[in-house]
Design goal:
There is one protein chain. With 227 residues, this protein is mostly helical. It has 10 helices and no strands. α2 (23-43) runs antiparallel to α3, α2 packs parallel to α6 and α6 packs across α7 (130-155). The longest helix has 33 residues, at 194-226. The two termini are 25 Å apart.
Length: 227
């Protein structure tokens, strides 16, 4: 079986399992909506959210992603599927890519529903390029799911996994969060000229972050999942 087939099989398994329970996507969606309602009423209905729209959106999505990432390996561990994956003739880095793509799909589904509601609830508009906005979201999602999947593999084998993942995930994701906020906020406010260079620089940081951690995960995952 080729690497692509192995990765596709793992993604298919996760998607089918989620379609049966809808546990992860529903809980993530309810959580992100609760955060947005808190923003809406906490800051006041007449507040101008435009200057810090990117910050608000990534606070919501970063903590929402933690909820899903924390669950991505729990069922595998509790039901003995993780041992089955390790004993099967599947390259261990392919387990990572399969789980990462599954997490990316679930996070993207939540965002696809939540972002239009976010814009309506906070009375916001995307003044810049829609494709650039989507690119900023996609690059940020890849980084979140890459680091999160790697760290959730480490934390799932510990007794305090629910606490350990946020403790190691949030510091490592700080550069990603800063670049995601700058790029998203710049596009939403319609930056142009010299200001737009900030957005492009932030996106380059996002792309570099994604590539570095994908390579790190590929190099270390055999060791990480075997521990």
């Amino acid at each position: 079986m080729s690497s692509a087939s192995q990765i596709a099989a793992i993604v298919k398994k996760d998607v089918i399992a989620e379609l049966r329970t809808k546990e992860m996507v529903v809980s993530m969606f309810l959580f992100v909506m609760l955060i947005m309602v808190a923003f809406h009423y906490g800051f006041g209905e007449s507040s101008d959210f435009a200057p810090f729209a990117g910050g608000l959106i990534w606070i919501a999505f970063l903590f929402t992603s933690l909820l899903g990432l924390n669950r991505s390996f729990v069922h595998e561990k509790e039901e003995g599927c993780l041992e089955g994956l390790l004993l099967s003739p599947v390259d261990r880095p392919n387990i990572f890519f399969g789980k990462m793509i599954g997490n990316l799909i679930f996070l993207s589904i939540v965002e696809l529903i939540a972002i239009p509601l976010y814009l309506v609830m906070l009375n916001l508009a995307i003044k810049g390029s829609i494709p650039m906005f989507i690119l900023a979201i996609v690059l940020s999602n890849i980084g979140i799911c890459t680091v999160g999947t790697l760290l959730s593999t480490i934390s799932v084998n510990t007794k305090m996994r629910d606490m350990l993942l946020p403790l190691i995930y949030l510091p490592l994701s700080s550069p990603l969060l800063i670049a995601a906020v700058i790029s998203t906020n710049g596009v939403m406010q319609g930056y142009s000229g010299d200001d737009f260079q900030q957005v492009l620089s932030a996106m380059k940081i996002l792309a570099g972050y994604d590539i570095i951690f994908l390579l790190v995960a590929y190099a270390l995952y055999d060791f990480v999942i075997g521990e």
